[in-house]
## 1
Amino acid sequence: MIDQILSATTPDGNVRAFAASTRTLTEELRRRHDASRVASAALGRLACGALLLATREKEQARVTVQVHGGGPLGELVADADSAGNVRAYAQDPQVELPARTTDGKLDVGRAVGQEGYLNVVMQVAEDPPYQGMVPLVSGELGDDFTYYLAQSQQLTAAVGLGVLVGPEGVRRAGGFLVEVLPFTPPAQVQALQRRIEGLKSVTELLMQHDSPLFLLEQVLGVSPTHTVAHAVRFSCPCSKERFGRGLIALGPDELQALADRGEEAELVCHFCGEKYYYSVEDLRALRQQALGEGR
Ligand SMILES: [Zn+2]
């Protein structure tokens, strides 16, 4: 099954909801970063959360979510857009932690840490980007996205995220975002809250049926209407040329010095692990470009 995200509303129009199944892209994150089980879970949850935020914008949107929790994974960053592209990295993706003793689940909260913040930078269409930052609630990320939507966006919303990792790789990954529109009767809001609190975990639901529609039906308690599905995928737009822009920014003198020392440059993309090599000739060519731009 391909990864996809589904947008929908309840038949009464009071609730907007989004759900995603993201196993393939989470497995790609795991593989590209050689990530531990707990890091794969954190990266998969963050990537799915970023995709859900980008998808709820009605226009073309790009979002960067940055999490600093003070935990052993270090900084985590995910970039997503409303066309369904996402990439993510953790500073130390090989760190592994023992499972939680309470329920045997991966200890994402401890791996991410709880002493820090979640920062969202959103760019919608041609509008200037806006930024919202909230302190972390648990480092489990689902709760933290929920808190961000409440605090920073003043939304009555809930986010659930989950990743199940087996010894062979990622078995299930996905999540949902449910948003109550203004003027919804309070009794309906409370009923939905109780329903979400009583739900099985996202991964248990996806194990039952690996489908965003099934996830939404379980969350909402009704069959949603106006469902629109689109594919989501891992994608990193990096290239030798883009990284070359960074080298040009060093300036002609520094590039000359590198080339004179006969040093080749190797740059690694944090997001996808791709390596780019710049030979001495490449550096000289970049120096020429830097000279041209300095004029
Ligand atoms: Zn890349």
## 2
Amino acid sequence: MILVAGGTGRLGRRLVADLADAGEAVRTFSRGISQPIPEEAHDGVERVRGDLASGTDCERAVDGVRKVVFAASGFGLARGGDPRSVDRDGALRLTAAAAQAGVEHIVMMSMVGAAPDAPLEFLRMKHAAEEAVKTSGVAWTVIRLGASLEQQLDVLGGALASKGIVPVFGSGRADVTFTSTADAAGIVRRALADPALRNRSIEWGSETHTFNGLAAALVARAGRGHVRRIPIAALRAMGAVARPFSPFMARMAEAALWMDSGGAAFDVGPTRAEFPDLPITGLAEVLRAMDPQTAG
Ligand SMILES: NC(=O)c1ccc[n+]([C@@H]2O[C@H](COP(=O)([O-])OP(=O)(O)OC[C@H]3O[C@@H](n4cnc5c(N)ncnc54)[C@H](OP(=O)(O)O)[C@@H]3O)[C@@H](O)[C@H]2O)c1
């Protein structure tokens, strides 16, 4: 049995479907708050409703499980969680429960740039989660992704569809290395299947683009709309002003500033060369698959 914590999220949904299609026994673990939990699914997937904040729920989730994938996150939650409570504390709680239950392997989803002194709280919390699996006594794999390509396209494409504008934060000229959901799911499946990927970290990206490039691609695809630039000064002000009443807005502004500073770019070459058989699903393919209604 493979447990996917956050199995109803963007990556989780894709991973769970791929694993189930491949004949694996899969269980998901989530609250049903930010994402619905299908009530009557006939896909053979077992769905546990529970909260990473609860030790009892974590114990229930790992019962009878051989492998765990931690794909939960509080980064995108406007309420009911944040990187501290989910990406760090939830990861630590589930890791401890997994070690106690004799789980064989934990795959921890992290992000390129995770470090104890990283500029974003999210990256500092991811570092703590990485350390927890490495010292858990359970075989581990840390997969450090780039920014989600689909998530960014949904944000930009959603604004294009509803308002006719694509917001670009800052200059939009910095390189950002994105990871598509299909590619993230692909490397997780490889890590689950191949013992050679145990007890190591892997940085995994798909393609590097600028936000100006993403915006231009969305406008070209829609055949309408234009770019609206949000200046860096406005982003800084938004981060500072929002912090006391909307930590979510502050997080988004800080992440946008970080990406516009070039911090989210990395070289995908070395790890891609290690796994030449894993396909790259890039911008062109993701755009083709996107719902035209939500992408301009
Ligand atoms: N998106 C990115 O750009 C990015 C970049 C690098 C790394 N990552 C990492 O990759 C993984 C997948 O990301 P994603 O974007 O696919 O995530 P996502 O779509 O935001 O999904 C998050 C999942 O976590 C669940 N969750 C949140 N709080 C929970 C709690 N307290 N207890 C149980 N489940 C909880 C959510 O369901 P409920 O809220 O309904 O419980 C949902 O299923 C995450 O670990 C993320 O940190 C993401």
## 3
Amino acid sequence: MDYLIRSMDTGRNFRVFAAVTTGVTEIARQRHDTWPIATGALGRVMTGALLLGANLKGRDMVTVRVTGDGPLGSIVVSANAGGEVRGYVQEPHVDLPRQIEGKLPVGAAVGRGTLSVTKDLGLKEPFTGSVEIISGEIAEDLTHYLITSEQVPSAVSLGVLVDGEGRVRASGGFWLELLPGAGEEVVGILEEHLAGLPPVSSMVDNGASPEDIARAVAGNFQINILDKTPVCFRCMCGVKKVENLLVSLGSEEIQDMIEKSGGAEVRCHFCGETYNFSAKDMERLLEEIR
Ligand SMILES: [Zn+2]
């Protein structure tokens, strides 16, 4: 089971959020038929969005958009405080030569552009912040976003490991956030410690739980686990929502679809679910409009 934990060191110097998302990323791979590089990119963005979402409350939502000029196109993911995430990558079938054995060239496939984070906190206006993509490796870009756009001193690490068949072997990540009281000494120890950590995907592949990851990040500092939230791939689409969408197109458009295609097939970008509407279903929608 995939889950996420939030923890804080006993000296209140920092917090560590950590997640194992192997199942979530595998579901996304199956739903979108992503090839390895796209799987890696989408898995990293989904894990990052879940970590950001863990800082929200109730029905608040966070959407991460990575809009690069590389072959993957855009990656769009949204997650909520309840550990639900959904997302897609514009071009799931991308392959590039591997420069380093075992490492997916996500940065090259994302390219340069912008990373933006939108938080819908149930207020009138959602808050959006964006930064330029610095490496396209996602974790580095999210760290850059947190430091420059939100002024939160952070270190984010995200990783996805794919097997020879393209299935997800391991996926996970962590977000280390320094709290205002953290002294230079603590920061120095953490930095040194982080530099010596194995990649987070290797930790997950070796069976590390989110608690293990958080403890590895904290090193000699004692941490308390604050809470634990299951995470899953879940979309917010549904027949009713798609019907509303069709109705919003207007009766002329619906009439046109009935005549030209004898119905409609609507595919949800976020989760790949398809909704089929027969001519009869469409007639019913026309009735509703009238
Ligand atoms: Zn959907």
## 4
Amino acid sequence: MAGAAMSSGWSVTITGEQWAALHAHLFPGDEDEHGAVLRCGIARSERGNRLLVRDVIPAIDGTDYVAGDRGNRLLVRDVIPAIDGTDYVAGDRGYRKLTAEFVADNIDVCADEGLAYLAVHNHGGHDKVAFSGTDMASHERGYPALLDINGGVPVGALVFASGAVAGDIWLGGEERAPIAHLRVVGRSRLELTPAPTAAAVADPRFDRQTRIFGDRGQQILANSKVAIVGLGGAGSVLSEYVARLGVGELVLIDPDRIDPTNLPRVVGARRRDALAWLRHPTRLALIRALGERFAAFKVNIAARVARQASSTIRITSVPRSVMEPDVAALLTDCDHIFLAADSALARRLVNSVSHQYLIPNTQIGAKVSVKDGEITDIFSVSRMSSPGSGCLQCNGLIPAWKLTVEATSPEQRKRQQYIDDDDVHAPSVITLNAVAASRAIDDWLMSVGGLVERDASADHWVSYHPRTGEVVEIEPVKDDGCLQCGPTRFALGDGKELPVAPASGNGG
Ligand SMILES: [Zn+2]
Ligand SMILES: [Zn+2]
């Protein structure tokens, strides 16, 4: 049943840009052997144990908290090509080898920064590859010492054919593991394995889709774990789409309960979910408060819709803020994060997770700008970003003033007259959300289905303005010193704290 992507154990994740550089170095067309080193951050999937969530909200009926062993990932941070004749030279036992200096320089950086070390070379062939006996013997001679120098942080090797990869990872003690796959993340997703894998035949109900994406595409959807942060108007549409497409696993995060004014926009919401009859303005305040207190959580409405669409989908619905550390941890082993929450803190967090854990994200929203009582603009926007590429911070979309306002308590905000109830009272209509959600899911489908055109850029940021009918595409910029997508965070995985809210009641 489980395809390569589902196997636990170890895998490697690399961005599209890094992959292009590595592939060009290993396969310049001379049919010869070349070498490189990858320095990698580490993401262990058992981190942020999912049971934490179950403990906090035991009362939600039928919610399925997934144990979440998606395997451990080596996140490629640096690709260091070995220069032929200087760093990569004739070997005494094998054909070629990395020089002792090149190895020493790289293992020193790894030891300093807590990174895993992977030596890389290539063989001939296309869709199948394995280490030679000479390769394995050299690992056994060299890696115990390297592991020691690296303070027990994994070291190992990858060997590539032009469309395949195998790995031998040394984990410390007596433990060694192969890699299940290497994934290239970004607009054009690609997965390499040691040998070709057969795709399971898709369920016949997906017949019309498999005519586009094939059985393999349908299997990728079934193996995908998708997070949606914010289950209001836009998030509820996203959630329904991915469930109907056959996505295997959903993580739904939103602390809010449904309000009667959400009913025109939230897919699947019923009048009784909002307890509208208790919350009518003519009711006593006490009765209205009761209605507010017992209205349904938005995540549970989305989960109900998703389950109606798919009997096999696994859902983790979390009616809490994504800013809580154990909730944020749920994002770190997802395959894609959709951000449909209109908060700068959530934007900063998802943006950081995306670049730190090499998980693509799409931020979506709709906005109606009003000035002096006049509507000045109406638009919906979808921004798909690839790790290491355009980031919300670099493009001015996480304003510092907004972070400050959101970080103050609601009481303080009221006192300072920032009545920030955008979510409830901002102008909004279901169609704007649907346009943004459709574009976001289309981009993701083209990516996982391998249908993105070769020369498409790594990111896709597009807004639609119905008053003029304009569709505007924006090429995001990247600031190399950015604290969120730059070297201080990029691909560091578990080796860096996420910008979550400080745990309350924990003075340490
Ligand atoms: Zn070899
Ligand atoms: Zn950035």
